[in-house]
Amino acid sequence: MTLYIDADACPVKAEAETVATRHKVRMIVVSNGGIRPSQNPLVESVFVSSGPDEADKWIAEACGLGDVVVTGDIPLAAKCVAAGARVVKHNGEELTSANVGMALATRDLMQDLRSADPFRQGGGKMFSKADRSRFLDVLDRVLRQAAQSTR
């Protein structure tokens, strides 16, 4: 089992490292660069080229059954779920085969609405302490479940 982090815009890298260390799980932090590598022996940094979605492509190709992926990117989440990985968003929401299709459809709808109205302002809600706490709880639970399913 490996924990993959889509790291370029990830607000919970340190929290994920803490949970991975507690569970003694290998963690791979994938980014386009600009992220300081961890000194933790369980954490590996992978730097991909700066093209669009290069980190996403790398993670989608690398992850598989029994792995866990942390990402806020819904298309990447859909690919990872299809590959058999478990996916946790930064706010602690788990994306599964049961809900990733709806998340993808909602993302596409919102993207269409934004492009149809160039004056439409706003984005997602702010990342909160409650989101961070929920993330820690969910990632801990998902890693425990993934470890049990790989035994």
Layout of strands and helices, then pairs:
Blueprint lengths: L1 E5 L6 H11 L2 E6 L11 E5 L6 H9 L5 E3 L3 H9 L3 E3 L5 E2 L4 H17 L12 H21 L2
Parallel strand pairs: 1-2, 1-4, 2-3, 4-5
Antiparallel strand pairs: 5-6
Describe this structure in words.
44% of the residues lie in helices and 16% in strands. Helix 1 (13-23) links the parallel strand 1 and strand 2. Helix 2 (54-62) runs parallel beside helix 3 (74-82). It has 5 helices and 6 strands; from the N terminus they run βαββαβαββαα. The mean pLDDT is 88. It is globular and about 50 Å long. The chain has one domain: Rossmann fold (3-Layer(aba) Sandwich). It is an alpha/beta fold and 151 residues long.
What summary fits the major beta sheet?
6 strands, mixed
What helical percentage do the residues reach?
Answer: 40-55%
Strand order of the largest sheet: 3-2-1-4-5-6
Supply the CATH class: Alpha Beta
Number of domains: 1
- Strand percentage lies at 15-25%
Radius of gyration: 15 Å
Give the CATH architecture.
Answer: 3-Layer(aba) Sandwich
Spell out the helices and strands N to C: EHEEHEHEEHH
Provide mean pLDDT, rounded: 88
Shape: globular
Structural class: alpha/beta
Counted beta strands: 6
- Uncertain parts: none
CATH topology: Rossmann fold
Distance between the termini: 10 Å
Note the total helix count: 5
Short overview:
44% of the residues lie in helices and 16% in strands. It has helices at residues 13-23, 54-62, 74-82, 100-116, 129-149, and strands at 2-6, 26-31, 43-47, 68-70, 86-88, 94-95.
